Structure formats: structure tokens, C-alpha cells
UniProtKB/TrEMBL annotation:
Homodimer. This is Kynureninase. Residues 91-246 form the Aminotransferase class V domain. One of its GO terms (cellular component) is cytoplasm. The keyword Hydrolase applies. GO terms for molecular function: kynureninase activity; pyridoxal phosphate binding. Its cofactor is pyridoxal 5'-phosphate. It catalyses: L-kynurenine + H2O = anthranilate + L-alanine + H(+); 3-hydroxy-L-kynurenine + H2O = 3-hydroxyanthranilate + L-alanine + H(+). Pathway: Cofactor biosynthesis; NAD(+) biosynthesis; quinolinate from L-kynurenine: step 2/3; Amino-acid degradation; L-kynurenine degradation; L-alanine and anthranilate from L-kynurenine: step 1/1. The modification N6-(pyridoxal phosphate)lysine is found at residue 244.
Length: 426
């Protein structure tokens, strides 16, 4: 498509956008009397208007029924989490039995490590990506130390080549082959939080499993953002938070995937709890743990219904639209943002924007990470004060995530104009 840096052209794209109506389904912060341009859905998504109805329903049932809400609420709390299985399985390419919702992201990664990181004297190494999200790095280090191993020996980071911003896929595959029989686990973020690079989940999973290693994925920046086929790709496990692209609210519940091939493996260790016990026999209070045959068998405690309610509101909205339509708009919206950045770059002398997110559409999704050469934190502050909520990362990178559910093409144009003024200001 031949893009134009005009408001009229952006409005024309919005008029042709079949998802534009969903913009009105969300609540926007306001600055200077106007809705903000919101680029931080990769950190915390906006609140869907329907969320309050779902939360109020739980509060009303609690007031009206008290403990009986577990069984007699309109959406009984006893099996509330089961409502996620079908819509989430469609979003991540899984079977409903492979999906559960529980805890929060890093807690769930730790729980998955109980089952899928079982180092031996020979097979104990973990491969991850350089500059993984810090929580993952801390999780790796603590797990390795828990097993009495040295992180500097057991943890292998795939590094970027000198002078490059992104990790080459061939370097990941080469390192997997090099570590070979010593490799116990590969655990990488499906989308790198800093650069926005999308990794080839299918190819990496296949390569690592050939060495006998387990493969897991942190999908915090991938769920609700990219196409996933976790069952087909034979991924062993995956976890994701729900509050970024999936708009469930701050610090909310995490989704988990455990491949069906592991559901009946009685030798696979796990931390057990009452809510993962055989559902039909749970209230018999039996002394021996009999796990549910499915991802729900990894649950430990009963679920926080007030947290699940906002997530369910968002998941059902995703199910209405489907990832195919979201990805189609995501690609066009991100491409238009990229065009706007290049146009502003050409218009202002002494400025250089370096987009460090891959140009190849197969290796990027909703995020563009931009080096602001010649600019500093003051430009970020200017954007925030003028109604653009974005994200600053040292040394001088802004992350821009135009979420297709609620960002418009006119937002991209308007952002360009505000950016231009911010650079040109005395």
C-alpha cells in the first residue's frame, strides 16, 4: 500500500478498518482534555468497558449467595476457570485440556520448572536469550542454584552478534546443537520484550527436542499478539501474563499450556495442591494426590475469581474477533507507524530514528523499539505531557506498541505530529 503522511489518509484507513468499532469498547486515560495515544499495551492494556460488568457480577453473587456462589452463581466459582479453556485454546493454538489459568507469570514458570527442569550430572544446561526480561533471568538463576548448580555454568545465553540488535535464528540453532547432550531445557521469550523480535517457536522447539531437552516459552509479549500453534509445534509448556495485550488488569492471572503428551505421565514431578486434585473426588478430602488429567492438574490453590473476571471479559472479546483479524490490522498499523517515523526522520535535520525491531514481518509483531539518536529523556517527557503514553528504556529507546484493538491509524499520524514538535521545540 502507498502510505501518506496526512490526517485524511489516516482517517480513510480507519474508515476501512472493520475493528475500528472496538476502540469504543475501551477506557482511555485523558491528558489535556483528550484521549491519550496509548502505546504501552505491551506493558498494561487498556480496560475494556465490559470488565466492570463481569467484576460486578462476582461482587453481587458474593453479597447474595456468600459461600453458595461456588455452586449457584450465574457463573459458578467452582468451575469458573474452565470458561477460559475453549477461547484461550483458540488464541494460542492448543486443545482445551492443555490450557489452565492460575497464579501469575513467574510463579507459573517456577512451577513448570519443577516438572520440566530436572537436571542430571550430564544433562543440566538451560538455553535462554540474552537480555531476557529480568524476572526470567532471576527465575533461571534461583532454579539453578536450588539444584546446587552454578548459574555461570548452567545458564547459556544466546547473544546478539557485535553491532547487531537482534539475535540470529541460526545462532540459536547452532548453540542448541553445540550444547547437545548437556541440554536439559530451552526457555525463551516468544517475543523479546526489549526489541520486539519474534522468535521461530516451531523450528527452535523441534531442534531442541532432538537433543532430548524440554522446551518451554514465556509468551508474555506473544499471547494476544502473534499467531501461536502450541499443540501443533509440540511445545512442552508455555506461560503468559494476561495484562499486556490481553487487557485483564494490573498483575492479573497467568495462562498456562501443558502439552497433552504430558498429561498422563505419572513420573513427571509437580507441586501438588487441592485444586489440581481429581475434580470429581476433590471434596472427599482424600490423603493421596490424584491429579486432573490435563493442564488443570498443575493447579495448586483455588482460583481468585475477582481476578479472573476481568480476564474472562477480555478473553471473550478476543474470541469474538479472532487472532486472524487482529494480526491483519496489527501488520498494517505497525507498517504505517514505521512509515510515519521514517517521514518525520526525513523532515527534521540532525535527527535519526533507528528502528531496532526486525523489518521482516515474520520476525516482528505489535511493537517497534526505536533508538532516538541525538535525543534524550526530555523528548520522552514531552511526549508524555502531550498525550502520548509510551515506554522509555535506557539508554535512549522508546517502545511503541500500537495494539490493534484500540489504536487507530489517526493515532499514528497524530503521534508523528507531536513527535515532530517535540524534536523541533526550542
Amino acid at each position: 500500500m502507498e502510505f501518506q503522511n496526512t490526517r485524511e489518509f489516516a482517517q480513510q484507513l480507519d474508515a476501512q478498518d472493520e475493528l475500528f468499532k472496538y476502540r469504543d469498547e475501551f477506557l482511555f486515560p485523558r491528558i489535556n482534555g483528550k484521549n491519550v495515544i496509548y502505546f504501552t499495551g505491551n506493558s498494561l492494556g487498556l480496560q475494556p468497558k465490559r470488565t466492570k460488568t463481569y467484576v460486578d457480577e462476582v461482587m453481587s453473587d458474593w453479597a447474595r449467595l456468600a459461600v453458595e456462589g461456588h455452586f449457584y452463581a450465574d457463573k459458578p466459582w467452582w468451575d469458573y476457570h474452565e470458561r477460559f479453556a475453549i477461547p484461550l485454546s483458540g488464541l494460542v493454538g492448543a486443545k482445551p485440556s492443555e490450557i489452565t489459568v492460575m497464579n501469575t507469570l513467574t510463579v507459573n514458570l517456577h512451577l513448570m520448572m519443577v516438572s520440566f527442569y530436572r537436571p542430571t550430572e550430564k544433562k543440566y544446561k538451560i538455553i535462554c536469550e540474552e537480555k531476557a526480561f529480568p524476572s526470567d533471568q532471576y527465575m533461571f538463576q534461583s532454579q539453578v542454584r536450588f539444584h546446587g548448580l552454578n548459574p555461570s555454568d548452567a545458564i547459556i545465553e544466546i547473544k546478539r552478534r557485535e553491532g547487531e540488535h537482534n539475535i540470529r535464528h541460526e545462532d540459536i540453532l547452532t548453540k542448541i546443537e553445540e550444547v547437545g547432550d548437556e541440554l536439559a531445557l530451552v526457555l525463551i521469550g516468544g517475543v523479546n520484550y526489549y526489541t520486539g523480535q519474534v522468535f521461530d517457536i516451531k523450528t527452535i522447539t523441534e531442534a531442541a527436542q532432538k537433543t532430548g531437552a524440554y522446551v518451554g516459552w514465556d509468551l508474555a509479549h506473544a499471547a494476544g499478539n502473534i499467531e501461536l500453534r502450541l499443540n501443533e509445534w509440540n511445545v512442552d509448556f508455555a506461560c503468559w501474563c494476561s495484562y499486556k495485550y490481553m487487557n485483564s488488569g494490573p498483575g492479573n492471572a497467568s495462562g498456562c499450556f501443558v502439552h497433552e503428551k504430558h498429561h498422563h505421565d505419572t513420573e513427571l514431578p509437580r507441586f501438588a495442591g487441592w485444586w489440581g486434585h481429581n475434580k470429581e473426588r476433590r471434596f472427599k478430602m482424600e490423603p493421596d494426590f490424584d491429579p486432573v488429567h490435563g493442564a488443570d492438574g498443575w493447579q495448586i490453590s483455588n482460583l481468585p475469581i475477582l481476578s479472573l473476571a476481568p480476564y474472562l471479559a477480555s478473553v471473550e472479546m478476543f474470541a469474538e474477533v479472532g487472532m486472524t483479524k487482529l494480526i491483519k490490522k496489527r501488520n498494517l498499523l505497525t507498517a504505517y507507524l514505521e512509515f510515519i517515523l521514517h517521514e518525520i526522520d526525513k523532515e527534521i535535520d540532525g535527527t535519526e530514528f533507528e528502528i531496532i525491531t526486525p523489518q521482516n514481518q515474520e520476525e516482528r509483531a505489535c511493537q517497534l523499539s526505536v533508538y532516538l539518536h541525538g535525543q534524550g529523556r526530555s523528548l520522552f517527557d514531552y511526549l508524555m505531557k502531550n498525550g502520548v503514553i509510551t515506554d522509555w528504556r535506557e539508554p535512549n529507546v522508546i517502545r511503541l506498541a500500537p495494539a490493534p484493538f484500540y489504536c487507530s491509524f489517526e493515532d499514528m499520524y497524530e503521534f508523528g505530529q507531536i513527535l515532530k514538535k517535540g524534536i523541533s521545540k526550542p
